[in-house]
Amino acid sequence: MLCPSSNQPEHDLVMTPPHLAERIVNHFKPSGRVLDPCRGQGAFYDAIAKQPGVEPHWCEITQGRDFFEETGHFDWLITNPPWSKLRKFLLHAMPLADNIVLLATLTHFDTRARDMDIYQGGFGRREALLVHHPGPPWPSSGFLLCAYHLQRGYTGPLYFTRDLLKSRFRGFFG
Question: What is the CATH number of the domain that holds 124?
């Protein structure tokens, strides 16, 4: 269930709880034109729209706005993408936005292919914000869930932030 089969598209519709979307958006503090390309039930879009200095935009294929047809330019793109299409999603997102934050397991970003995609797209890995897995219907696994921030032209270090986990797992992470 971690990466749904291509013949079961309904399993790739896992909605982000609003409290998690708000914590992620509040952490990154996007500004300017911000796109939620997988609006779903609106958790990320609603959190984005609350930010000062933001012009929120959205796509949602079930509402006739297909992200893969989007051609605008955005300062930020923040969403929980369909994990089975993460590579295709990332390749389309990089020309559109200067900052990309995707919610997925850390292992989705930790492959040679993804590393080359990010490098060739002119992006750098800025931060992996580790978050606690929501309860069902989220797929459970032993993999870390993170909001991964990629930034155009960034060449600095990759930061791993555990702020969202500390309150729940104080003793485990120190």
Answer: 3.40.50.150
